[in-house]
């Protein structure tokens, strides 16, 4: 197999940079929408047959079930921030995988000065390129640490 020409190699590098940018933009758009309670924008980041695996919960299949489960779990919090850190992607054609870390912080009552509930752990993503752009096909999320108290009990394994 021959090496790509200078132009082909440049096109491949540009495509790789665009894919990385688009995957990051998908996560930023989705998780900012999640924090804002914009469930339609957030769930649009997922494929119709997506799978969510989250440590304390059962495996959740399909966009409707994912949206309903997460909305119910997070409904007890007045303010939330989902931070996505140390992200890396590997693209293979129209499929991609990604890793990163989650740092979730939530406050149950507006203006509450008490210590918020927080948790963190690893993300493991699988993406598919669709006609509408990259979408999440599978997300695995583990919990490595927690601090504060989850007053809603949503993340203790009884949700979902």
UniProtKB/TrEMBL annotation:
UniProt xrefs under InterPro entries: NTF2-like_dom_sf, SnoaL-like
What residue intervals traverse the membrane? Answer: none
The source's superkingdom equals: Bacteria
CDD domains membership? NTF2_like
Domain SnoaL-like residue range list: 15-138
**Do you know which Pfam families this protein is assigned to?**
SnoaL_4
Q: What is the designated name of this protein?
A: Nuclear transport factor 2 family protein
- Please name the taxonomic classification of the source: Bacteria, Bacillati, Actinomycetota, Actinomycetes, Kitasatosporales
């Amino acid at each position: 197999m021959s090496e790509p020409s200078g132009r082909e190699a440049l096109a491949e590098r540009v495509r790789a940079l665009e894919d990385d940018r688009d995957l990051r933009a998908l996560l930023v758009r989705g998780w900012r929408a999640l924090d804002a309670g914009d469930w339609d924008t957030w769930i649009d980041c997922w494929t119709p047959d997506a799978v969510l695996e989250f440590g304390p919960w059962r495996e959740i299949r399909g966009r409707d079930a994912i949206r309903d489960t997460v909305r119910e779990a997070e409904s007890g919090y007045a303010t939330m921030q989902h931070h996505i850190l140390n992200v890396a992607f590997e693209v293979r054609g129209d499929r991609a995988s990604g890793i990163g870390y989650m740092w979730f912080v939530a406050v149950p009552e507006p203006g509450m000065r008490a210590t918020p509930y927080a948790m963190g752990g690893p993300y493991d993503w699988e993406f598919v390129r669709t006609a509408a752009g990259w979408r999440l096909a599978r997300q695995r999320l583990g919990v490595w640490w927690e601090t504060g108290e989850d007053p809603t009990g949503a993340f203790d394994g009884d949700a979902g």
